[in-house]
## 1
Amino acid sequence: MTAPAIPAVPSVGVEADRSWRPRRLGGFVESAFKAHAILVYAFLYLPIVVVIVFAFNANRLATIWTGFSTEWFGVALGNGVIQKAIQNSLIVAFANAILATTFGTMAALGLQRVPRQLRMGFDVLTYVSIIVPEIVIALATLVFFATAFDFVNPVLAGAGGAGAFKLGFGHATIVAAHVLFNTSLVLLLVRARLSGMDRTQVEASFDLFATPWRTFTQITFPQLLPAIVAGFLLAFTFSFDDYVITSFVSGPGSSTLPLYVFGQVKRGVSPETNAVAAMIFAFTIGTLLIGQLLLARHARRTGSRGSDASVAGMITEAR
Amino acid sequence: MTVAAATSRREGSGRSALATGLLILPATVWYVLLLVAPLVIVIVFSFGEKARNGGYVPAFSLDNYGQVLLRPDPFIDSLRLATIGTILTLLIALPLAYFIATRGGRHKGMLVLLLVIPFWTSFLIRAYSWLIILGPRGAAGFIGDAIGEPAFRILGTDVGVMIGMTYGYLPLMIFPLYVTLERMDRALVEASKDLGAGRWATFRQITLPIILPGVITGSILVFIPMMGEYVIPAILGYGRTFLIGNALVLDFLEARHWPAGSAKAVGLIAVMMISITLYLWFLNRGRKTREVSVL
């Protein structure tokens, strides 16, 4: 007789919780909250709007508005140095995103099955790589590569004579340094997703005699996909935007777009730089929105909740 | 578990250990080669001497650390600006995070996405944009005219650097605060009010302890990059605000005095760890007394 009453009692409680609304404070406090929020959003978007608006400014003196023009985009895109920088940035960003996403996802899967001590050691390294200021990672990598090249290059020269292959700073050193930082980000994102995953499907798949590989491709991977996509996009934009690490470990001819922009910015504001800046904004915001759309579609198809399968959601939660 | 399953798992264990090893191998190689080894080399170099053409000569000298102690200005300035910056971001972020979490309603997802977008876009270019906004034809000129001082400047001062840093790292403070506020069980607040606690007592005894982890995470996430900041003082401070980041770039990329730079890098990590430890100690101490007062 009492059996049906037992679930009924807590469910009423839960409903009461859901319908709970914050007790409204006084009208003044409420409007102060709202005004504060509007101001903060304005503060966050002001620089983005300013750069984009001034990129369409006709005047050569970039800070005085004289009229609408798209000529600076043409000037920027016709500049050989900028073309080379864009090419370098894309090479580095793609290589870094692919490697970091692969390594991070592999490590997240492997770490589920290692002894606790090993996993803790790994955790320490992951957090150290994120917590140590970027500039320290940058200079440490520079010193490491320089030292390593001093050891390796004489050996290579001894083996190959005068025309021997020589290691030096360039795309590879930039990618290697970026991958360190981004592997940790992907690892954290994918592990967060793994820990929230429903294990019963994996067990059911094994009980139905699926091979580990089949279980991975059909069960685990689709569930991890949002975290992997978010990790890939995060790694890609990090690399595409990074100045500090890149400035320490780049070599001749491997200058990326941020290095070019920084060099220009130190000379002051110019309409060409404004145009490059606006294009970078458009590109990075575009990748974020495309990622967001892809994940929303994926979420609809697999029937998972939208909020935890968005790039934005994952970034806010992982930090 | 069935007997069959148990045996199959045992048989597969050798192969699966190998597979696990292969899965974590690339990340392990990367961490050892590009994190542990470089940091060890930096520590070793910090005791060395500068080679004539730059670079490093093995030695055991404490001179580089002596120099750090003799010229602590960049450390003091970084610590000062990072502390003020952390407090400023917290003061700006807390009401906003609370607003989104409690009043966001069905727009929550959109409001969060709108926070992620600026954070996602190029840090360098957002810093660059402040050159236009704060420049003599922007805010500085406007304020200068208003107060009758045409020479008024924001760029090239600590204030300009502070605005840039607060702007750049604000989202890193909002995200963790929002997540803790979002997960907060409102029933606790209701219960506290039902038990006759006032608004202030409820905030101090219920809300504050719950959001404390968010405050700690946010502060650390903001404080660390501010301590090592280079781009903002270089661009908005015209290099006049000389922080540890600027000193490190000078030592490594211009003067090529690697041992001196290495000692500063070790010093930066030491200062950071000491500050964070003191901060956590201070907050935990506060928390214990509060628990006692609740009892």
## 2
Amino acid sequence: MTEPHLVIEHVTKVYARGEVLALSDVSLTVNRGEFAVLIGLSGSGKSTLLRCINRLIEPTSGRILLGGVDVTKARGAELRQLRRKIGMVFQHFNLVKRSSVLTNVLAGRLGYAPAGGTLVGRFPKEDLERARACLERVGLLEKMYVRADELSGGQQQRVGIARALMQEPQILLADEPVSALDPATSSSVLQYLEQMNLEDGVTVICALHFLSLARRYGTRIVALKGGGIVFEGLPAEIDEVRFKEIYGEDAQEVEVR
Amino acid sequence: MRPRFRTPRKQLVALAVDWTLLLYLSYCVFFLINHWYRALVLVSPVYRVPFPPYGYLVAIAATLLLAVVWQNLGTSIGWKGVGLALVRSDSGPASFGLRLRRIVPDLITWALALVGAVLLLLPPVGLFTLLNGVARGTGISFVPGLALWPRAPWPIALGEATLCLLSLALLAFGVWLAVNALWGFLWPARKGREPWCDRVVRARAVPASELEVTGPKRRWWRTSFGLVTVLLIAFTIYVGWLATEISLKTFVRRAATTGYLWGWIVTPDFTYFVNPDPVLQDSILGALIETVFMALMATALGLVFAFPLSFLGARNIMTTGPVGWLVYTVTRGFFNVVRSIETIIWAVVFAVWVKFGPFAGVLALATHTIAALGKLYSEQVEAIDPGPVEAMAASGARRWQVIRYGVIPQIVPSFLAFTLYRWDINVRMSTVIGLVGGGGIGRILFYYKNEILWHQVGAVMAVIVVVVWLMDYVSGRVRERIS
């Protein structure tokens, strides 16, 4: 399967009246079924690039095609239809802390569920079944009625993954999903992403901080620096020299298992 | 690369702030002049030194000049307030000498403008004086006492000379202002260049947040910012003290005159606690129940309207487009206008509208509650964690679905707490609006007060204290449980 799934063409993002150039002329193609990992220092534009894909951030110029459809031109209902296919997992989980795990997971289905029912908190039966299945998949079925803020960090991120699963996404954007977690939990969370990638054939684009994790899970690595792509290739191709190029002269690689 | 001029808007805001402060300071000075004139010269207490009509012009011009000079120092309150700092072009710290030199260009324009005004205005004014003097036969004189024409009565000439000088100064000021604003600031700002005074001394204004902290902070008494702030506070308290006629002497001396009042109040008369007062046709207890219900209904009505309005008045929900901005601004404006009109005024309005009685009171309280709760709610909506909102928007949810699932669960506890708190306030407020026909216990309180039945006033007050205390305790405990 080497059909291109996501095509990013010359995307530029300028913030705050021309003060900050977050992305400068980024072009990238991600094939269907790939696990692409974005690496780079904080502020290199990883989050901005991910958010441009589902238009949480409006790119200043450029074009983004998802399965041949131009995302940057979509408006209103059309944009919502597109966003339904794009799952997203966040660094700080972005769960509603006071709501139950089940409600949080069901919220991932809002784009599909009948609008009138959701106003009074009713979801179709099949959505409830699906939520159950998604929670079972991330091993949190018994926590279904627990408040989200009573879970540990790793568990909260798994709820975040279950919420993304509810969308039955074709593509998953993960914005540093493990930065707020300890190393052991990080691996288990990334394994769920890998599972989605391998079993469901979801294309994954994941921003990561640790190069060791990027090497372990990525099928391809894209390095950003100062808003531009400085490296694109297989994980094995990143050697000492390339590493210094991406992270700067003073950087030291840290091993995380 | 030449540094770009990035802070024109900030500098203008800073100037406006400083100018306002200095105008206020000049008002304080005039107030004190008046006060001390009356205190030192034995004039009637109502006599005030009149403020001459041209005084406004002079004050406006002088304070603006001062504000600009203060701006040039780069240590003004305005600069601190908007977060601006002055550095050398090579980003080194700006010395005091440099700051002083930064004043020079503005003073030079001021002097040049004055010279220009003299050159421009002197010939026509001189000619006018000459012709006027010749035509009216009063003689000619520019300088008092030095008459070119022996018959000149010099006071006329003096008046003309003063007028001439004053108009010269004002014209010079206008020219200076125009030159300074256009050539020194606005034009360079359009071109993205530093203002004139900065280019001359090789300095630039940068956002203070970008400045690296080197060494300890300068102590407040060594900065013009700190000194002027202290001066402003001192002036404000002093002028405030005089303006509100605070007098410790009167307070202490006349304390004994209220003795009998206290005596009556602490011996309350509970005759009409349960039995209705024959004149009022109502008992204290009955009125009290009415008051609590008034507060409850007002809070309920306020809640119903404030809840949806609070989303329209929340910046993070509304400011996604021009229409949203408009709705946000209008809603916030509505909150502020309605909130700034006191409940007692609303009570008067509604007492006329729906006649005296508890209904008018409920409407008055509810109106104020809508605005006050709306504002508090909106601030809660603005303070939510934006994460879930982002997550739901990313999953393709509709806007109202995002609000229903991402925003409302986050704000429910604080909404409940504020609503309870508001009920508490409404009970207290409803005692006051009885004064203007709002019904409830306030009506009884003010009836007894006006009839000088102070024992009964004491009884009503005791009952109010008990209820307010109880409400405070209960709502405090409930709020504790919720959060």
## 3
Amino acid sequence: MQKRECLTAIFGGIAVIGASVALFQAQPVVAQAQGSAAVFTPDGRLKIPEGFRRWVYVGAPLTPNALNGGKANFPEYHNVYVQAQNIDAYMKTGEFPEGTVFVKELTRLLSPTFPDGSRTEPSGRGFFNGPFNGIDLTVKDSKRFAKTNGWGFFTFGHHPLPYEATAASVAECAGCHIANVAKTDMTWVQFYPMLLNRTAGWDTPQSR
Amino acid sequence: MRIIWKALIAGTFVITGVAISQTNSRRGPVFTKDGDLVLPTGFREWVFMGGPITPNSLNNGEAPFPEFHDVYIERENLLYYQHHGNFPEGTVLVKELVLTQKGKYPDGSVDSASGRGYFPSELYGLDVMVKDSKRFANTNKWGFFTFGHKAPPYSSSTKVMSKAECASCHIAGVAKTDMVWVQYYPLLHANLR
């Protein structure tokens, strides 16, 4: 190989690597600038955000069907996820930023054997996660959802996988959030231990 | 010209090195010189696998693990399990315990807007298991650790637990599924990201 060709190849290689590094770093910046995992279709329906199971899990209330007349409003585990940057903002300001998405994924209980829905396992008597069983979701968008305190509510079905791909906002959820948690930005922060003490960090094991 | 060449080649290696270090974020376990496990950090940003709950009130007031058991794994190790059916060397599983809100019912449940059930209140302890087939050959490749069943702060490092304390129950119950109670973690079965 001639020296000139070799040099050209090296320059080309650097350009390719440089461009890929720039792309690699630029993507999250673009996503942050958009500021939201909420993606709407042209007719205003919301898509299930990709990758939400990699977001931060903040807590899982459990309302067993067996303790709720056989039919809990949200059967049965409510696994709640939110993105780390939105927790950071909440810890600083006490409010979630515009575009914040909370995903609540439901799971059924693993084969109950007691009337209350529990079963006995080597770790004791209690409740254990069964199959996935639905997704509900809230989005903060104070213009789009001005009538419901700045948050929109969506359900993608209370049933096993697969879920609906898109959903229109529903009105019946907001009333309960407004009645109970309007003062904490429409979010049940009392059920999420990591969010309770805003003066402490949330992501290190020595904080809460 | 020769110097410029060398600089360019060195620069290429540096840039490539940066790119590799950015994509390789997996941390794995950290041990002290004495073989104690250092408290893992950042695990609340790992993937949540599931949260069995054994309420104290359903276990004579003193469950072995009070009460929610929130289990976390690093994503790379989750994906590896989905493909291979076992966990790679260096896998760390973290189980953080969370108490429930005090309920008015004898079973410990409480009425809330969403119904009667169990709701998290305070963080209350941390247990960890680490896969290292050489270090923990006597306990089926996994070492078991507890950093305390109490409110934070947790211990900053801790010794491995004896075989009788943790490993024996895993060996008896889940030796065939790489010592992990995979039946409680729907994400391990669903082949989802």
## 4
Amino acid sequence: MNIISWLNIVDLLVSAVVIIAAIGAAVHRNLLAAVVFAGVVSLAISFLFLRLAAPDVAMTEAAIGAGLSTVIFLIAVRRTEEMEGGDE
Amino acid sequence: MAGNELYVATALIVILVGFATVLVKRNLLKIVIGFSLVDSGANLLIVSLGYLPGRTAPIVDNADMLARHGSLLVDASKFVDPVPQALVLTAIVIGVGVTALMLAYVVRLYATGKTLDVREFGRMKW
Amino acid sequence: MKQVISVIALVTLGFVLWQLVPIAIPSGLGPVTQHYVADGLVDNGGSNLVTSIVVNYRGFDTLGEVTVLFLAVSGAAFVLRRRSGLEVYEPIPASEIVQTGARLLFAPIVVFGAYIFVHGHLTPGGGFQGGAVVASGVLLLLLADRDRRLPHGLLSWVESLSGFGFVLAGVAGLLAAGSFLANRGVLPLGQWNRLASAGIIPVIYVLIGLKVGSELSALLDLMVHAANEREEAHR
């Protein structure tokens, strides 16, 4: 199996991680877990940016989206409630 | 058109999941998470629409990328489109700024109303 | 009823986006982009074409972005300002590993962030990425030592002077070459792939890096210390 098809399989796996983590962020009742899922979405999307030949954008998304945005979310969760009460 | 479909489809699914979260969920923090997902998905969509298969990242790092030896004109057929990347760079930073502002408002609303349910705030009067 | 409308809205949005996407996929570079790529090295002297678009060809949009970030952080700081009637409770102190690691790692992280925004015109990176890395280093310090107070006066001076310097660089371009934020004429373009090249682009990126780093550090400091306060009735 040469390197090109191996990279395509990695692309498929990372895209699957993105979709599963996005659905997990939307569905999960524990807000702490939902915020971590959103951070995983940002990190996996930054890997996809690298595969799309955009190293600047990958660096920005990893530092700002997966790093600082998740931290700000976690601080907000700490200041409010952790479990999503009631129903949708 | 060849290499783009996987990334475009992923980005569209993330955007739709984010919008579904904003429309359906009642919890304020979940709504802000939904907006953040829409931001990430839209950025992925824009960058994947600028991708041209077989070409490389827009950084000129060796002399093979120049059009002629000795000149500084760049051979434009070797690079992907750099304009969507520049736009997305701006969009990511603005996205985190807006998310921080939304979360500051959520924290303040919780301190006032002691609840994160968006239905309660519809009934709050002055 | 609301659920039905939501489902219809989502299906319509998905359908519209899916139909619009094949129109938007390019088969080559457009004419303006062709000029940005082909003349990017000649006009700017820096290897990073995305930097030359963000700072030179679309420099005014970057000025707008810096303004929007400043407004968002100011708004958040105003909303979360310290009010009377809040009790502050003692947070759990960080463990020994975090404290020692933060002291050892802070300097390399800040140097790495500075490296990223100083070399923005040569390698992938630039002001925003370097500023975010510097803010992450400051966050590590804040997490290790919960009583640490950042020098807010210094941060606010650095941020204001950097923003002012960005506009001054634009005015210098106006005086030297006739258009705001022009790259010709203010500083020499220099030799390709050297650190001191690309005209005023490294200067602008250093200023943006300092501004974004100090802004995000101030925002994180505000939010981390605000996380220690609770309303009296809720515990």
